Amino acid sequence: MNLKDFSRKIFVPAMLVGATTTASAFENVDFTRAAEATVNSVVSIKSYVKPARQRRSQEMGGFNPFEGDPFFEFFFGPSQPRQQRPRSKENEESKEEPQMRQSGLGSGVIIDSDGLIITNNHVIDGADRLEVTLNDNRSFDATVVGTDATTDLALIKIDADNLQAITMGDSENLRVGEWVLAVGNPFGFTSTVTAGIVSAKARNISSTTGYRSRQGIESYIQTDAAVNPGNSGGALVNLNGELVGINTAIYSQTGNYAGNSFAIPTSIVSKIVDDIEKYGTVQRALLGVSFTELNPQVAKENNISAVAAGIFVAEVVDGSSAAEAGVQPNDVITSINGNPTTTTGQLQEEIAKHRPGDTVTLSIIRDNKPLTIDVTLKNAKGDSGITTRNDVSTLGCSFKSVDDDTLTKLRIPSGLQVTGITDGKFKNAGIRDGFIIVDVNNVYVKSADDMKKLYDAIVSSDEYDHVMFISGVYPGSPRKVYYAVDIAQ
Q: How far, in Å, CA of 470 to CA of 436, rounded?
C-alpha cells in the first residue's frame, strides 16, 4: 500500500467522523427559547437634534466624541452629510419650530415593566429628543433618568406599563466558550438576533490594542456574535434568555463587524442602574494606585518570583484608600475578595462593583510572600460619603440657555450662559457673570441638565484630576476664553 492509498483509507474516514460528531453537537443547541424570551424586551432608540444646532456644529468643525477612531466604531456608523433645507426668504421668515433630524440609532433593553430602559450613554448623548420603538411597533418619547460616561451606560424611561422586562442574569457565571445571543437593531433591522460564543472575559481593549479608550472603565465580555451599527445598547443574553451584558463596541477598521464585539457585563450594569435609581448619580469607589500588569520584564526588574501574573503596584496615591490600608509600591495584587485579579479589566470590574465605604480584601504578594489587606474604599473627594447630583450647586451660579440668534451672531455651535455668580468654584476660577460656556472637556453644552450630567461624569470618574476645562466667550467680545475649574475638593 502506497502513502496515497493509506491516506485515503485512514485519514479521510477519520475526518468524516469528526464532522458528523460536530454537526450533531450543533443540532442539540436550541436558540429559540432565548430569542423568544428576549426580542420583546429589546427596543430601538432614535436620537434627534435640532437642525440649526446640528448645522452650526458641522459648519464650525463641531466636536464629535466618537468620530475619527481608527479602531472602533461605537455603532452610529460613519458620518454622513445631512441634507439641509434650501435657504429662501420664506424659510428665513418662518416662525415655525424647525423639524428635528435623526442623528443616531441604537438599541435599549427594558429592565422594568414600568418603562425603565438601559442603553449606552453614547446612544443618547447630546440628543434633543429620544424616540423609543417597541417590538410591537408602538413608539414613545423617552426622558433621561441618569447617565454614566465612565462606563458608557444610561438609564432612560418611557411612559408605559405592563412591558416585558428582561430577566437579569449574572455575568460572573459566564464561561469562555459558552453560547450567547446578541439582540438589537443593526442598520435599523429591528429585532435582529445573532449567535456566538464568549471569546474572553474582563477584556480591556486599551491594554490589548495600545489605543486609549474614551471610556474610563473597560472590563468587557468579548464575543464573536455579529453586531453592527444600531446594535449599541442592545442585549447580550445566555441560552436561558437572561441578560448578561449590554452590547457596546466592536473592534473594526471599517466601522462594521469584523469578528470581535464587546459588551458591558451585568456585574457592572446592575450596580450602575441601582446607583442612578437610588442616588441620581453613580457612586464610584477608587482604590488609589497606579499599576501595570505583571509581565516577565517587570517581574525580573523587581525580583518577583512567587507569582507570574497579577497587578503590579507602581505607585500609591497619598491619602487614598490603598495608602491608608498599607498597600505599598511593588506589591502585586492577585485577587480581590477571592476573585482573580491579574488583568486591568479584572481589577476595574472588581472595584466598579463597589461603592465608597465598602471594604474589600486584597490578596497581595510582597517580597515574594503572600499577604491579605482589607481596604475601605473612598470616592474621588477622599471620603466615603454619598455623591449626589445636586453637588453641581457648588459651582456657585445659575445657567440660562442661549437662543439660536445669539449663537449665530457669536458664531458658536452651542452655548450656556452663566448667571447669578456667587461664592463657589466658578467664581474662584475667575468666571464672571454673563460668560457663555461653549464646551466642557470638549463636550458641547446647551442646557443646565447638560452641565449636571458632565459634572456628575467628571466627579464620579476614576481619574484623580477632576477638572472642568471650559471654553467660551463673553458677549460683545470675539475672543475665546478658557478656564480650568477644579471640582475635586
A: 10
Rounded to an integer, what distance in angstroms lies between the CA atom of residue 283 and that of residue 194? 34
Q: What is the pLDDT of residue 356?
A: 94
Q: Say yes or no to pLDDT of 281 above 50.
A: yes
Q: For residue 299, what is its C-alpha cell? A: 517581574
Q: Look up the CATH number of the domain holding residue 182.
A: 2.40.10.120
Residue 19 lies in a domain: no
Number of domains the chain is built from: 3
Count of beta carbons in the 10 Å neighbourhood of residue 138: 12
Give 311-333 as a DSSP string.
Answer: EEEEEE-TTSHHHHHT--TT-EE
Quick one: which of 225, 257, 220, 269 has its CA closest to 75? 257
Backbone angles phi, psi at 30, to 5 degrees: -115, 115
DSSP H helical ranges for 233-331: 266-279, 296-301, 321-325
Residues acting as catalytic residues: 122, 152, 232
pLDDT tens figures, 382-407: 888 877 665 677 788 889 889 888 89
For 440, residues 6+ apart whose C-beta sits below 8 A from its C-beta are: 451, 454, 468, 469, 470
**Cell of residue 122, nine digits:** 453614547
What residues have CB less than 8 Å from 175, skipping those under 6 apart? 198
pLDDT, the chain, mean:
83
The answer to the question of residue 18 being in a domain is no
Burial class (CB in 10 A: 0-12, 13-18, 19+), 99: exposed
